[in-house]
User: Fold this.
Amino acid sequence: MRVVVLRLGHRLGRDKRVSTHVGLVARAFGASGIIYVGEVEESVLNTLRKVVDVWGGPFSVETAPSYRAVIRKWKEDGGLVVHLTMYGENIEGSDVLERIRSSGKDILVVVGAEKVPRDVYEMADFNVAIGNQPHSEVSALAVFLDRLFKGAELLKEFEGAKLRVIPSPRGKRVVRLRE
Ligand code: SAM
Assistant:
Protein backbone atom coordinates (compact mmCIF):
# COMPACT_ATOMS: atom_id res chain seq x y z
CA MET A 1 0.00 0.00 0.00
CA ARG A 2 1.46 3.35 -1.09
CA VAL A 3 0.75 6.38 1.07
CA VAL A 4 1.29 9.98 -0.03
CA VAL A 5 0.59 13.07 2.08
CA LEU A 6 -1.13 16.14 0.64
CA ARG A 7 -0.38 19.28 2.65
CA LEU A 8 -2.99 22.03 2.16
CA GLY A 9 -2.99 25.70 3.08
CA HIS A 10 0.72 26.40 3.63
CA ARG A 11 1.16 30.09 4.58
CA LEU A 12 4.46 31.56 3.41
CA GLY A 13 6.73 32.44 6.31
CA ARG A 14 4.35 31.48 9.07
CA ASP A 15 4.05 27.74 8.30
CA LYS A 16 7.64 27.07 7.24
CA ARG A 17 8.57 25.06 10.31
CA VAL A 18 5.30 23.15 10.66
CA SER A 19 5.18 22.30 6.95
CA THR A 20 8.76 21.04 7.15
CA HIS A 21 7.79 18.90 10.12
CA VAL A 22 4.77 17.51 8.27
CA GLY A 23 7.21 16.36 5.57
CA LEU A 24 9.66 14.91 8.09
CA VAL A 25 6.89 12.98 9.82
CA ALA A 26 5.49 11.76 6.50
CA ARG A 27 8.87 10.29 5.55
CA ALA A 28 9.84 8.90 8.97
CA PHE A 29 6.42 7.33 9.53
CA GLY A 30 6.31 5.40 6.27
CA ALA A 31 4.71 7.60 3.58
CA SER A 32 6.39 7.51 0.20
CA GLY A 33 6.01 11.18 -0.64
CA ILE A 34 4.53 14.56 0.11
CA ILE A 35 2.79 17.08 -2.12
CA TYR A 36 2.56 20.71 -0.98
CA VAL A 37 -0.31 22.67 -2.49
CA GLY A 38 0.42 26.20 -3.64
CA GLU A 39 3.48 28.30 -2.98
CA VAL A 40 6.02 26.94 -0.51
CA GLU A 41 9.54 28.15 0.31
CA GLU A 42 12.37 26.39 -1.54
CA SER A 43 14.04 25.96 1.88
CA VAL A 44 11.21 23.65 3.01
CA LEU A 45 11.63 21.45 -0.07
CA ASN A 46 15.43 21.56 0.15
CA THR A 47 15.47 20.55 3.82
CA LEU A 48 13.40 17.48 3.04
CA ARG A 49 15.43 16.57 -0.05
CA LYS A 50 18.61 16.86 2.01
CA VAL A 51 17.17 14.54 4.68
CA VAL A 52 16.35 12.01 1.96
CA ASP A 53 19.88 12.33 0.57
CA VAL A 54 21.52 11.77 3.96
CA TRP A 55 19.09 9.42 5.70
CA GLY A 56 17.58 7.61 2.70
CA GLY A 57 14.29 7.10 0.95
CA PRO A 58 12.58 6.63 -1.35
CA PHE A 59 10.53 9.74 -0.59
CA SER A 60 9.27 12.22 -3.17
CA VAL A 61 8.83 15.93 -2.48
CA GLU A 62 6.55 17.81 -4.87
CA THR A 63 4.35 20.86 -5.18
CA ALA A 64 1.03 21.18 -7.00
CA PRO A 65 -1.02 24.25 -7.90
CA SER A 66 -4.42 22.75 -7.01
CA TYR A 67 -5.54 20.26 -4.36
CA ARG A 68 -8.66 19.51 -6.38
CA ALA A 69 -6.63 18.28 -9.34
CA VAL A 70 -4.42 16.09 -7.11
CA ILE A 71 -7.39 14.56 -5.29
CA ARG A 72 -9.32 13.95 -8.52
CA LYS A 73 -6.34 12.29 -10.19
CA TRP A 74 -5.66 10.14 -7.11
CA LYS A 75 -9.26 8.88 -7.17
CA GLU A 76 -9.27 8.36 -10.94
CA ASP A 77 -6.18 6.18 -10.47
CA GLY A 78 -8.10 4.02 -8.00
CA GLY A 79 -6.69 5.48 -4.76
CA LEU A 80 -8.42 6.34 -1.52
CA VAL A 81 -8.47 9.83 0.01
CA VAL A 82 -8.32 10.18 3.80
CA HIS A 83 -8.70 13.67 5.25
CA LEU A 84 -7.49 14.13 8.82
CA THR A 85 -9.80 16.44 10.72
CA MET A 86 -10.93 16.78 14.33
CA TYR A 87 -14.54 16.67 13.04
CA GLY A 88 -14.22 13.23 11.44
CA GLU A 89 -14.85 9.66 12.59
CA ASN A 90 -12.65 9.03 15.58
CA ILE A 91 -9.87 6.53 14.84
CA GLU A 92 -10.35 5.21 18.38
CA GLY A 93 -13.67 3.56 19.18
CA SER A 94 -14.79 3.19 15.56
CA ASP A 95 -13.98 0.77 12.73
CA VAL A 96 -12.88 3.56 10.37
CA LEU A 97 -9.26 2.39 10.21
CA GLU A 98 -10.38 -1.17 9.45
CA ARG A 99 -12.54 0.11 6.58
CA ILE A 100 -9.60 2.10 5.22
CA ARG A 101 -7.15 -0.82 5.51
CA SER A 102 -9.52 -3.38 4.07
CA SER A 103 -9.89 -1.30 0.88
CA GLY A 104 -6.32 -2.35 0.05
CA LYS A 105 -5.99 0.90 -1.91
CA ASP A 106 -3.17 3.42 -2.05
CA ILE A 107 -3.93 6.28 0.31
CA LEU A 108 -3.68 10.04 -0.10
CA VAL A 109 -3.63 11.52 3.42
CA VAL A 110 -4.78 15.15 3.43
CA VAL A 111 -3.78 17.50 6.25
CA GLY A 112 -4.62 21.17 6.55
CA ALA A 113 -3.12 24.29 8.07
CA GLU A 114 -5.76 26.89 8.86
CA LYS A 115 -9.33 26.45 7.66
CA VAL A 116 -9.77 23.54 5.27
CA PRO A 117 -12.21 24.23 2.39
CA ARG A 118 -15.58 22.50 2.62
CA ASP A 119 -15.18 20.52 -0.59
CA VAL A 120 -12.20 18.61 0.88
CA TYR A 121 -14.60 17.03 3.38
CA GLU A 122 -16.82 16.04 0.48
CA MET A 123 -14.13 14.82 -1.89
CA ALA A 124 -12.50 12.68 0.83
CA ASP A 125 -13.55 9.03 1.06
CA PHE A 126 -12.96 9.22 4.81
CA ASN A 127 -12.77 12.12 7.26
CA VAL A 128 -10.79 10.76 10.18
CA ALA A 129 -10.23 12.31 13.60
CA ILE A 130 -7.31 11.50 15.84
CA GLY A 131 -9.55 12.17 18.79
CA ASN A 132 -12.17 14.90 18.39
CA GLN A 133 -10.08 17.64 20.02
CA PRO A 134 -8.03 20.26 18.15
CA HIS A 135 -4.26 19.65 18.02
CA SER A 136 -1.89 19.69 15.08
CA GLU A 137 -1.35 18.33 11.60
CA VAL A 138 2.05 17.02 12.76
CA SER A 139 0.64 14.95 15.62
CA ALA A 140 -2.45 13.87 13.65
CA LEU A 141 -0.30 12.61 10.78
CA ALA A 142 2.12 10.76 13.07
CA VAL A 143 -0.63 8.96 14.96
CA PHE A 144 -2.57 8.11 11.80
CA LEU A 145 0.46 6.65 9.99
CA ASP A 146 1.63 4.77 13.06
CA ARG A 147 -1.79 3.16 13.49
CA LEU A 148 -2.11 2.44 9.78
CA PHE A 149 1.25 0.68 9.64
CA LYS A 150 0.87 -0.80 13.15
CA GLY A 151 4.31 0.48 14.17
CA ALA A 152 6.15 -1.45 11.45
CA GLU A 153 7.23 1.82 9.81
CA LEU A 154 9.51 2.48 12.80
CA LEU A 155 11.66 -0.47 11.70
CA LYS A 156 11.74 0.55 8.04
CA GLU A 157 15.11 0.31 6.27
CA PHE A 158 15.63 3.46 4.21
CA GLU A 159 17.35 2.93 0.88
CA GLY A 160 20.46 4.78 -0.22
CA ALA A 161 21.18 6.33 3.19
CA LYS A 162 24.58 7.89 3.82
CA LEU A 163 24.17 7.70 7.59
CA ARG A 164 22.48 5.25 9.92
CA VAL A 165 21.90 5.50 13.65
CA ILE A 166 23.03 2.60 15.81
CA PRO A 167 20.45 2.58 18.61
CA SER A 168 22.14 3.18 21.89
CA PRO A 169 20.89 3.55 25.46
CA ARG A 170 23.14 6.58 25.95
CA GLY A 171 24.92 9.00 23.65
CA LYS A 172 24.89 9.15 19.84
CA ARG A 173 26.15 6.35 17.60
CA VAL A 174 26.03 6.97 13.87
CA VAL A 175 27.72 4.99 11.09
CA ARG A 176 28.61 6.31 7.66
CA LEU A 177 27.42 3.90 4.94
CA ARG A 178 28.62 5.84 1.91
CA GLU A 179 29.93 9.25 0.90
N1 SAM B 1 -9.54 24.65 12.56
C1 SAM B 1 -9.00 24.14 11.34
C2 SAM B 1 -10.10 23.57 10.49
O1 SAM B 1 -11.23 23.61 10.89
O2 SAM B 1 -9.83 23.06 9.40
C3 SAM B 1 -7.93 23.09 11.63
C4 SAM B 1 -6.62 23.68 12.04
S1 SAM B 1 -5.42 22.50 12.64
C5 SAM B 1 -4.23 23.52 13.39
C6 SAM B 1 -4.51 22.01 11.21
C7 SAM B 1 -4.72 20.59 10.77
O3 SAM B 1 -4.38 19.69 11.81
C8 SAM B 1 -6.12 20.20 10.38
O4 SAM B 1 -6.44 20.63 9.08
C9 SAM B 1 -6.05 18.68 10.48
O5 SAM B 1 -5.52 18.10 9.31
C10 SAM B 1 -5.09 18.47 11.64
N2 SAM B 1 -5.76 18.16 12.91
C11 SAM B 1 -5.82 18.93 14.02
N3 SAM B 1 -6.48 18.30 14.99
C12 SAM B 1 -6.87 17.10 14.50
C13 SAM B 1 -7.58 15.99 15.03
N4 SAM B 1 -8.07 15.99 16.26
N5 SAM B 1 -7.76 14.92 14.23
C14 SAM B 1 -7.29 14.90 12.97
N6 SAM B 1 -6.60 15.92 12.41
C15 SAM B 1 -6.39 17.00 13.17
Q: What stands out?
A: The beta strands are 3-7, 33-37, 60-64, 80-90, 107-111, 126-129, 163-165, 174-176. The mean pLDDT is 97.
